[in-house]
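pipeline/complex-builder :: batch 7 item 3
reading input block
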Amino acid sequence: MRLTAGFTRLCAALAVLLLAAAAYLVVAAQATQSSYDLARLKQQNEQLQAEQNQLRYQSATLHAPARVEQEAQQLGMQRRADQRVLAVEAGVDLQKPIGPDPADDLPRWQRLLGRLFGRDG
Amino acid sequence: MAVSDFPAGQRRLSSPPRQGLSGSRRQEPGGQLPRLRVLWLLVVAILLAVTIWGRLAYWQVVQHNGLGQLAGDQYLHSIPLPASRGLLLDREMRPLAVNSTVYDVTIAPSQIDVADRDRVGGVLSLVLGVDPQAMTTLLASGKQFAYVARRQPKEKVDQLRAARLPGVDLQAVEQRQYLPGGVPNSTLASQLLGFVDWNGRGQRGVEQGYQKQLAGRPGHESSYTDLYGRQIVLGPDSRVPAQNGAPLVLTVDANIQYAAEQAIAQGVQDAKAEAGSVIVMDTQTGGIVAWASAPGYDANQFASQDPNRLRDPIAAQVYEPGSIMKVVTLAGAIDNGSITPETTINDPGYINVGGVTLHDYDLANHGTITMTNVLERSLNVGAVRAEEAMGKDAYLRNLKAFGFGQPSGIDVAGESASPLRQQWRDAELATASYGQGVAVNMVQMCAALNAVSNGGVYVQPHVVQSEAGRPVPIAAPRQVISAQSAATMRMMMRSVVQHGAGHLARIPGFELDEGGKTGTSNIPENGKYSKDVWASYAGFLPADNPRFTMLVVVKHPNNGSDDHNEGYYVSAPIWKTIAQQMILQWRIAPENLQPV
């Protein structure tokens, strides 16, 4: 009886050890696999960055003045040789700030006071 | 105590009774032999142990580094992580220099089977344009490593990838790329920007001047690999990430730069000149808006360019500015109180200084003239009289105040500047007043004129306005002449355009609203002045609140007659063409000033 119990414990211990070893192997294999995946993704990232560089260069080239001029010429446009600058009196006050009059945001009583006393606000 | 009282194991360790060995041998002759044997065994064991420990120490301590290196080479790989070079952008954040990825195609002939050689060689020859015979020789060489082609574009590399060639490797490399310039076979602002060599080092211009900031700091990564050389990312690796270079925002306007390159190239061609340059400066900030020279060069193909073209004529070469220097002389004299625009002198067409007779360009008697007339007609005698009125010391102080005699400090590599003479003879001082016998670079000259445009305030000329988003510090502005003197000088320069030699620079709509000065100076050769000239024109607009100051210099124009080789004829029209583009691009409106 005592022998059987001891043997069972030994078997159980061995089984636990085997399970632990198997689990370790699985985790180690997964880690290695993940490692390979990461390496592959890093390579992919580098390639994408290279492509991004390439696209940035293409974009810069397409927006370059030389390219714009080339396109304009193909569309039949050309520079005027006899350009003249004319000074024109502007019909609006160009110095005036854009947007609604700041006084519009004031409460009505303040605007009323302003009108009464001839002051803004 | 008897010997036999000790246990057997302890007996050999205990000291024998002080009777001497002979006495002991006599008493117990049979007991000495085992003890000797034990001692011998002990010695042998110790020797063996020392040998093993010594050998262990040899491998583990003495040979540690070498063996560690050998082992590391097998499983530990160190990969350099290159830093990406910072971009160069213009003032509107448009790219001027960007990075593209190209590929070095390498081959390991020793790893290619004989049966595959024909296919590998054929594809490489076809795609890369390599000589097939050279490929066959290379493949048969059995070498471990060889370059097939360098800096190949992605399109070709994609074809090679698709072919899946054994023993062929493609290594990505970052390469600097510049935009097309204003004329064929040139890149935009090539002389200003410089280029980056195969080793990633900036050469000339901004690329060299800001090499440290642009290059960044490369990193490295050490990682373990398996038997097949695959990287084990989760291993105990060490990684020092690369620090990318800082992007630089320049004060340059790409559109103006482009227009300037076209105009200067056309001007040089029209005048059958040797070369020409133009520099445009933002009046208030001192930032360089355009910096163009003809002939330029293709920075993308720097290795195959004429080395003489790589040198920047604007900052790296000096020239004699000629009559444009009269602006500096007269401005100093006005500020000094020695003259006014209405000061009259008698100009017989020549003046004798220190035993040397100096002439006006036309050798004519001009009679009584004002200082404004001196500037309008560019009369040397008047400039000499202004210099004499100031006095030698005040004149030299004035030159230094306007930034002559020392480098301008512009932030590009290779600025060349001549110091002022230590000893001046009277005649040398006199010729310097109208820009002969004094050597300056174009940046110095433009910055000095810009001080007049900018209310007498000298601002530091510079090219880079911010580095990685942070403003680049520049020297503080300094008042060179009073605002009143500068305004007076600007009015005299307006008169040059309205009544004098600057008439070919008049822009329709801005005739009353621009100031300028012509200049023509002889080029010294072998210690003597030759007939060849530098023809120049400098100007600004709008007159009261200038937005830019521009200087055009054309070297050795060859229009047939002396008159047609002068600055007013050669350089003023170039100035006008570029200024018109600036008016359009920057939407500059005239100020409706009255005639002077």
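note: Confidence is low (pLDDT under 50) at residues 1-27 of chain B.
queue -> next item
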